[in-house]
Write a structure and sequence with these properties.
α1 (2-50) packs across α3. β1 (64-69), α3 (74-90) and β2 (95-100) form a beta-alpha-beta unit. This protein has a domain at 47-167: Glutaredoxin (3-Layer(aba) Sandwich), CATH 3.40.30.10. The chain has 182 residues and is of the alpha/beta class. It has helices at residues 2-50, 54-57, 74-90, 107-112, 140-148, and strands at 64-69, 95-100, 117-118, 120-124, 130-135, 158-161, 166-167. Strands 2-1-4-5-6 form a 5-stranded mixed beta sheet.
């Protein structure tokens, strides 16, 4: 009996130590890996801030990479690290313009370039002629090839569509209905 009573507190202490260790490990792992989990969302939010104004982009005699995206778009999040890497590599030679489809300020561009699915990347030559349109999830090599061919490509628009894309949600924020005025 005496031996049984001394084992229980020992087991309780060990169990507490193990539980505290596991919880600590989970918390530390989450803190260390949070950048990996949230990197794509952060990149998407930063795209708008890092964007060249489209009016300037089409007038400065440089090719333009125009991406339509949304922060809720899973495919956009997945492609964000690839697009960010391309931006870092080519930003000295090419304008990078990022337009969030949820921002009504960009509605005229969304209509003009017939954006129905995102991400949509439109590539323009130095004169502002639309050369390529890539819709949906794209391999980095395909985007890189389209960028590299901007100056060499004939002046016709090619469209590359991937089945993995997000359909744009209709923006009803500014819709008027009889009940919206009290």
């Amino acid at each position: 009996m005496v031996q049984s009573n001394t084992i229980k507190p020992f087991l309780n202490k060990n169990l507490k130590v193990i539980l505290i260790s596991i919880v600590s490990l989970v918390i530390i792992s989450f803190i260390l890996l949070r950048n990996i989990f949230f990197q794509s969302t952060y990149l998407l939010k930063s795209f708008g801030e890092l964007s060249v104004d489209p009016e300037i982009a089409f007038k400065n005699n440089r090719p333009t990479f125009l991406e339509f995206y949304a922060e809720w778009c899973e495919v956009c999040k997945e492609m964000a690290p690839k697009v960010s890497a391309l931006k870092e590599e080519y930003e000295e030679e090419i304008n990078f313009v990022f337009l969030n489809v949820d921002n009504q300020k960009w509605d005229n561009y969304i209509r003009k370039y017939e954006v129905n699915g995102i991400p949509q990347v439109d590539l323009f030559d130095r004169e502002g002629n639309l050369i390529s349109t890539l819709i949906g999830k794209q391999e980095e090599i395909k985007i890189r090839d389209a960028i590299d061919n901007l100056d060499r490509e004939a002046k016709s628009n090619s469209k590359i569509l991937n089945a993995e894309f997000s359909v744009i949600k209709e923006n009803k924020n500014h819709e008027v209905n009889p009940r919206s005025h009290g």
